[in-house]
Amino acid sequence: MIGRIRTYLIRYSRLQTGTVSYLTLVQEAELGLNLEISHEKSRLNEMLAEISMAEHEDGRPPLSCLVKVQGSKGQGDNFYKLCEKMGMGEWRSLKQNEDFLKDLIRECREFWQDESNFQKYA
Fold first, then answer.
1. Cα(68)–Cα(58) distance, rounded to whole angstroms?
2. CA distance 104 to 42
3. Origin, by domain of life (predicted)?
């Protein structure tokens, strides 16, 4: 399932604009999760965190910056706490910095739209 999520988000970063909702991710990547069941939503969050940690450790932008809760303006606290774990700064400061998320999304798109990066790491 982690492989399907990662592949979907890489493709999304190359071909789409904006961000993808949890629900769209679950449906389009055919994950079979019910987001109304708390442990299934938690499992999705854990997988997104695992993917982003691995990407970060390999010097790539965190793919989970592309996923947001439908109806929210951006990311929840857990995303910023994950960024803090990855050494990007204190999570509250990151959340208050309007450019932080925009810059991460831009970096993610630029990285994956580069054909050599795509060929090497996808």
1. 23
2. 23
3. Bacteria
Helix (H, G, I), strand (E, B) or coil at 68: strand
Q: How far apart are CA 54 and CA 85, in angstroms?
A: 12
Q: For 13-49, what is each residue's pLDDT tens digit?
A: 999 988 999 999 999 999 999 999 999 999 999 999 9
What CA–CA distance (Å, rounded) separates 43 from 20? 18
- In angstroms, the CA 121 to CA 34 distance is 30
| Phi–psi pair at 45, nearest 5 degrees | -60, -40
Residue type, 9: L
> How much is the pTM?
0.92
User: From residue 93, how far is each of 19, 26, 68, 80, 113 by CA, in Å?
Assistant: 22, 30, 19, 9, 29
